[in-house]
From TrEMBL:
The keyword Membrane appears for this protein: yes
Family: Belongs to the TerC family.
Transmembrane segments: 15-36, 48-68, 88-106, 113-135, 141-159, 203-225, 240-260, 272-292, 298-318
Keywords linked to the UniProt accession: Membrane, Transmembrane, Transmembrane helix
GO cellular component: membrane
Topological type in the membrane: Multi-pass membrane protein
A family per Pfam: TerC
Descriptive protein name: TerC family protein
InterPro entries the UniProt entry points to: Integral_membrane_TerC, Integral_membrane_TerC_rswitch
Locations listed in the record: Membrane
Length: 331
């Protein structure tokens, strides 16, 4: 059998590398849904942390493989993208928690929403990264627009601070309630349910709050992708590194959510740290030009990014230690 097709170049890398990555992702999704969470149930914090550790370990292991296969610069770019995307995912957890709270989604069905949300993310990120790759390859100046956007976004995040998004006034929710049949009560794990229409009495399909929560989770990811996709392109323009670091960081979001949702208040200073990271990543392109460098050193980029995020996490845990004790004692 001729396996020469596996070495065909696709988006700058041999086809076998893309197939290996896709196979790992499919295997993880089947393992997650088909074995670990075949039945709807609540995920405890201990299980959440164990699964999160597994996903983070796999993501880092893939980064080591990238380092070995493609060289130190590609490896460091992957790890930088993975760290940035993982941190953005932590910020996304806060919004998802608000969405689940607004729609009163029972804990045992939250994993179902997150699983289907992740499938949507994989497709949406592929489309957005594909468009980004095409733009950057055709118009190199687009990178400067991405960079300026990141700097502006970071400054805006610092300015807004901890202001919560208003889920209830979201125009998409109001549109769905005006244009479609929507039921206010949950119907188990169903996204849609057939009920008599209150005006005609005929059986028609209704959206459940679980489906509306799924739609809002997908929209939230699109909004976060507007930050994360330019961020990774400011780190590297290699489509393989861009996509794999994004997806590996996002894959563990479902598992991580259940641990972080219970202790999100402990990460008070993570958002300012993330804002500074976006400003730094956006500034790198302009700094490299000013210094006459072809590109900003990957090792320095990884070191600075990790130091900023680690400082934000550590400072948050120190400053909120008293609130955790009060939370544990007072309930």
């Amino acid at each position: 059998m001729d396996f020469a097709f596996l070495f065909i170049d696709w988006l700058g890398k041999p086809l076998w590398m893309w197939l290996a990555f896709i196979s790992i992702v499919i295997a993880l999704l089947v393992f997650d849904l088909g074995i670990l969470h075949r039945d709807n149930r609540e995920i405890e914090v201990r299980e959440s942390l164990a699964l999160s550790s597994m996903y983070i370990g796999l993501g880092l292991a893939f980064g080591v493989w990238v380092w070995w296969q493609l060289g130190p610069e590609s490896g460091m770019n992957y790890l930088t993208g993975f760290v940035v995307e993982k941190t953005l995912a932590l910020d996304n957890v806060f919004v998802i928690a608000l969405i689940f709270s607004f729609f009163a989604v029972p804990r045992k069905y939250q994993h179902r929403v997150l699983f289907w949300g992740i499938l949507g993310v994989i497709v949406l990120r592929a489309i957005m990264i594909g468009l980004g790759t095409t733009l950057v390859s055709q118009f190199s100046w687009v990178l400067y627009i991405f960079a300026a956007f990141l700097v502006i976004t970071g400054i805006k995040m610092l300015w807004i601070g901890d202001k919560e998004p208003e889920i209830g006034n979201n125009p998409l929710i109001n549109f769905m309630r005006r244009r479609f049949n929507v039921t206010d009560e949950h119907h188990g794990q169903d996204f849609f349910v057939k009920k008599p229409h209150p005006a005609t009495g005929k059986l028609v399909w209704f959206m459940t709050p679980l489906f509306m929560a799924l739609v809002m989770v997908e929209i939230a990811d699109v909004i976060f992708a507007v930050d994360s996709v330019p961020a990774i392109f400011a780190i590297t323009t290699d489509p393989f590194i861009v996509y794999t670091s994004n997806i590996f960081a996002i894959l563990g979001l479902r598992a991580l959510y259940f641990a972080l949702a219970a202790m999100i208040h402990r990460f008070k200073y993570l958002k300012p740290a993330l804002a500074i990271v976006l400003i730094f990543i956006g500034s790198k392109i302009f700094i490299a030009d000013l210094l006459g460098l072809e590109k900003f050193p990957a090792a320095l980029s990884l070191g600075v990014t990790f130091a900023i995020i680690a400082s934000g996490v550590i400072w948050s845990l120190i400053k909120t230690r008293g609130s955790q004790e009060a939370h544990s004692n007072g309930g």
